[in-house]
Amino acid sequence: MAWLLFLVLMAMVFGIIGATAGGLFHLLVIGVLVLVCAALFGAVRLRRTGRRPTR
Prior knowledge:
The chain is mostly helical. The protein has helices spanning 2-20, 25-50.
């Protein structure tokens, strides 16, 4: 869970820096990619832990 929050935080930082600083559009793109990876990572973890074996 800590990794997921860290990835979302880094995506926000990269996105803000990339959107505000001139000539750093690539950081905005990196921020979006990190956010997508974090969403996929969270979905995989949620799906994997959602299945509990029946007894």
